[in-house]
Amino acid sequence: MHIDIQLAMEELILRDRINQIEKLKTVVGRRKNGCRPLNILIIGARGSGKSSFINSVAASIADDYWREYANSGAHGLQQGSANTVRIKSFTAAEYVTSSRLHGYALPSIIDIAGLEDEHSKITEEILRLLFYGQLEDHVNIHSVFNYGKQNGVESMRWKFFKWYTADSCKVDRIIVVAAATQPIPENLIQCVMKAARPTSDRFTREIPVFGVLTKFDQVDESGKIFKDRKQNFIESLSLVGATHRLAQCVNYCDDIDPISARTQQTLPDVDVPILRFMNVVCGSNYVVTKPHESYTSVIFWEAARQQSGSIMQMVYAILVCLLFSVIVRLLSQ
Fold first, then answer.
1. Are 302 and 293 in contact (CB under 8 A)?
2. Residues 243 and 306 in one domain
3. Where does the sequence pass through the membrane (predicted)?
4. CATH of residue 60
């Protein structure tokens, strides 16, 4: 009797997994119908499980078994050390193994090095460079940070900006990953929110932000420490009353799969919560505000405004910026 119940539960989970994948196909649409894959940036502190989450997303839609696309794990026993160093984008062409999903506009997932939990102008500007598609694959984030630290934010802007960036290269969604086993990186999240939801008149492009809480299986969910951390995470991401944008999940890893069964098969009970969350993240009800805004036009306008000493110079600067914006808009069409 017990075995029959267990088999029935496994069948329900498998069916739910299939339904969630079918729903995801509907949500993202087909590329031949003009649907564009979203660019989803994964952000978190070191050791939060970012790369493991990326691999888990890929496994959740796989037909056969888990694969390691993003380098995951820590070096030895050192808490918080990580393998990811350079920016790496994983397109659907790289991680989709099922022929049933070919042709669908599944998102590109961007992995970056774990960031320090500090609130600084440099971190905020690096995030903005990422959001506007100014930093390409294989760029070392730590090198960018060190350059900004040595030369200042303004110099960093002018060194790494690109004359033209297509909208398809910009970030459309942000997922902040935090581990239930570590304090919530409040300072880092504050930088993320400032860059993703600017309040100044300079940058106005706003990006939807989501949260993932990993490793909750390693803590006491009924304990005060976990409850406080979860609430802190929700409040830091401004998700109070919007917890449907928060996922609490476990990743494919040795902790839940010590015999590495994942290298031979998928784990549906891990997949389903992740698939449900990705259906929310990719939903069309979330949109980027001012999607065509160019990082370059903003910093050129700022420089012109600071250096213009007369009315005629200001008028000239405005005309130049307007012309530049028109050119960027025409190129993006």
1. no
2. no
3. 314-332
4. 3.40.50.300
